Amino acid sequence: MNYSPLPIGISDFAEMIQKKFYYVDKTLMIRDLLDSSAKVTLFTRPRRFGKTLNMSMLKYFFEDDRDYHGNKRDWLHIFAGLKIMGAGENYLAHMGQYPVIYLTFKDAKKETFDESYRQLAKVIAEEFKRHDFLLESIARDQDRENYQAIASEKANKVEYQNAIWFLSQCMEGYYGRKPVVLIDEYDVPLENAFSRGFYNKMTDFIRALFESGLKDNASLGFAVLTGCLRVSRESIFTGMNNLNIMSIRNAKFDEYFGFKVDEVRLMCHYYDMDEKYKTVQEWYDGYTFGQTDIYNPWSVIQYLDDARANTNWLPTAYWANTSSNSIVRTLIDHSDDDVRMQIEQLMAGGRIRVQIHEDITYGEIYDSSDNLWNFMYFTGYFRKMSESMDGVTIYAELAIPNKEVQYIFEQKVQNWFRDRMKGRDMTALYTAFVTKDCAALEDEINDIFEETINYMDQNEYYYHGMVAGLLTGIKGFGIRSNREGGKGRSDLFVKPVRRSREAFVVEFKVAKNIDDMEIMADEALKQIAEKEYDVELRNDGYKYVSCYGIAFCGKECVVHCRDSAVG
Q1: Which partner for 256 in 8, 29, 124, 137 could form a disulfide, CB atoms 3.0-4.6 Å apart?
Q2: What is the pLDDT of residue 487?
Q3: Which residues form the domain of 552?
């Protein structure tokens, strides 16, 4: 079978169709958009969930596209056979009938405000150049000069702030119809500005651009914006009562960003990979947009493409690698005891209850843990399991959606823990271990575990890894885990470089309750003796070998030691 190629990184709708990439048909979004009759619609969705492709689709459908000479180009053929073509003449009558202003702010991520502003000016200038033929219909010399200044990136800031409004007027004068304005990734420059310290300057510019172009623009037909986060009306959309916001909580348009269950099943079947569906579900499903179960489209496509080439390919966190995911680390860094407990609850497969408020600004994200939870929910890190109202306040139960996001949390928690340990004075712990001061060693380990975030089930493997990591820095000693020794496998060997010094065997146990910890620590020592875990160390030339039995329950431990003996 001659399979369609999977669209890795394809975001242009015409390229998607003309090169016959596998396309999950979302064209009925056009019908629903026309039915809504909203003046300005903002769609907020996580990154890599198909926003840009859908915006490109809208552009090709609505645009009365002209070349530099004003000659019309027809894009009807790229919609042939797609769902919108069967929606009815009322909708098809809008095809190719509007001038379109198409702007994408995705690249406005620069180190300074001036650089970011110049990038936005460049994007606006390119759109003016794309419609250079409008100059023929502009009567006033001042307007022609203004148009050319914007197109050549020589206009001043006020002229760029009014650019959408001005271009709309020029288009209405030429076409006799009010334009459609499409702005993709509107909040990228805002998020970047916040992280780099010039948020207020960027907010002022974007607010002025939108007020003139979307609020006070008599020449506007309708507008569609996309972004990751709904930013409060007070910060950007001041006074815009014509704004219709479609977030992941809304049932309208819920199926048009990301893949539905039946769409993923069909894709797996098309590529003869039905047996991969379960893996795809575990790793990339789990989102709820409105009332619809949604898969991460970016990761599904990436995984199926890799699995086609190698049937033994293991799933990985593709979406995790599309940005720094620094928000997870920020949550951990800002966490107090309550937040750490909530993170642990989530990572153990549980839920947390969070007050929902959508109209935060980037400047407010770090003001409270509630704001951080909300930001992470709306940008794709959590699944809403249920929603309720207490008085006038909306609450949602949130959970980690899938293994891919679980991986992101685990990696960030591990990195956070390593960084904290690098800055901690471990002298007391090392001294207690080498001198066999069990009480002091218990205190040190308990203090450290109290500050940690558990990122997996609290089993022997977890505690083994944590303690092995803590002991790695003991000067003059090497750490060996799960080495063959005697009649079984010891958990840990701590071996001095000099064989005249004392070596250690460590065995871990997990108690079901705190009262059993002393018993389990003794059981660990008994196991070392019965299975002769110390034999390997003695055969390796170590005369003095002592044994630790360490029992854990939650974030507490009990340490027992058996003194060294000459082999």
Answers
A1: 29
A2: 57
A3: 425-566
